[in-house]
Amino acid sequence: MTDAMAAVADGRPDPVLGPRFADALSFALERHRNQARKGTAVPYVAHLLQVCGIVLEAGGDEDQAVAALLHDAIEDAPPGEAGWGREQIQARFGARVLQLVEACTDADVQPKPPWRARKEAYLAHLPQAPTDALLISAADKLHNAAAILRDFRTHGDRLWDRFRGGREGTLWYYRALVDAYRAAGGVPLLDDLDRVVSEIEALAADRGGDGPLSGPA
What we know:
globular, Hypothetical protein af1432, 62% helix, mainly alpha, 217 residues
């Protein structure tokens, strides 16, 4: 009997999350404890936990769950600490976790490149990204999109002030993400993301916009 079969037989989860996962929780809290979600007082770690949960519920393994907790640890590192963050991730969690986190990182320098160029580069890289990283990336974007939809319903167009791309750029980016994941082929959660993005577009159109837009130049 395989370990996975034994886990199912005695009611344990597969994968069984061990000390590395607990260490990743601690590391994520250490790196993000003073951050909040854009335009809110919600601790940023709530997003990391949600993304991790989506990854696990979609069948992700422990490395993917760890990487989900750490997917912004390099991108959001304080100036000059991205290299240190990489070293810590590889030493504590291994080369595969570092590869997964790198694949979910759209910039690692401060100040960050211009918003549009950064997003276009991330979109261009998705079809060539490791397949196991695409689950984490899609889980991240799905949770972000769901939060945008919820807050758009509550706050209306004031929501767009939180985002560097504004209304037009944000709508462009999330539709472009759906297209990029589709080009990558077989990305988990694509249908869920497409549905949420379509709901955002429909709500934007109902409130006087045009739905999916080209975004700022």
